[in-house]
Amino acid sequence: MSAIVDGQGIIATAGLLHDILRLESPFVPEANGSHSVEFPGESPMSKVSSEDAAPAAYLYVPGDAELRWSGDTRTYFLATGETTDGAFCLVEETAGRGETVPLHRHPRDLESIYVIEGELTVFLDGAPGQRASAAAFAHIPAGSAHGFRVVSETARYLLITTPNHGEFYRAISLPTGPGGERSGQSIDEETIMKACQAYDIEYIGPLPPEDA
């Protein structure tokens, strides 16, 4: 079930290293000029070629990530399916008071929200709205009905989701204009509805009022 928890950060799961590898001659030239890594006792079939390597590590400092706009909401694409080899998508959004994401669900894609600054009212699975301020975390399993509203002057938050759902964010936003500002264009309702259909988003309805 969906839930909001308070915390001081995002806790990531770490993988377990099974062996400490001691390399004798790690870099083995291939006939095509590329290199692979060979471990002691390893068969040639298990070599990992540099051509098949995972995406490169990277660091974004503020302003480096791709910036897009959805209305007055500013969206930075920090990680995508392309940069994470299909593992996840991570965006940072800044939105103003009254901005809303209406009630909806996506049967194939999970999503999580981590509030950095400001305050949201989050609606999960038909429950009354719950206030989520800085350091609050909400997890939405695939298929759960949800939506939220910005109730502070501004709010900044992270959205963690699947690469597929991340492409929906892209489809309902526009590239930045000169100087990082809005381009002055807006996404029309027809484009949003087509994106919902393409990325399997089911619209449920508007959010309840704050005092409901």
From the structure above, extract its key features:
212 residues, Jelly Rolls, 2 domains, eight-stranded antiparallel sheet, five-stranded antiparallel sheet, 9% helix, 37% strand, globular
Indicate the topology.
Elements: E1 3-6, E2 27-29, E3 35-37, E4 48-49, E5 66-70, E6 73-79, E7 89-96, E8 100-105, E9 111-117, E10 119-124, E11 130-133, E12 136-140, E13 146-150, E14 154-161, H1 163-171, E15 174-175, H2 189-198, E16 202-205
Antiparallel strand pairs: 1-12, 2-3, 3-4, 5-6, 5-15, 6-7, 7-14, 8-13, 8-16, 9-12, 9-14, 10-11, 10-13
Description:
- By secondary structure, this protein is mainly beta.
- The protein has 2 domains: 21-53, no CATH class; 58-205, Jelly Rolls (Sandwich).
- The chain is built from 2 helices and 16 strands.
- The protein has helices spanning 163-171, 189-198; strands spanning 3-6, 27-29, 35-37, 48-49, 66-70, 73-79, 89-96, 100-105, 111-117, 119-124, 130-133, 136-140, 146-150, 154-161, 174-175, 202-205.
- The strands form 3 sheets. Strands 1-12-9-14-7-6-5-15 form an 8-stranded antiparallel beta sheet, covered by helices on one side. Strands 11-10-13-8-16 form a 5-stranded antiparallel beta sheet, with no helix packed on it.
- The relative contact order is 0.19.
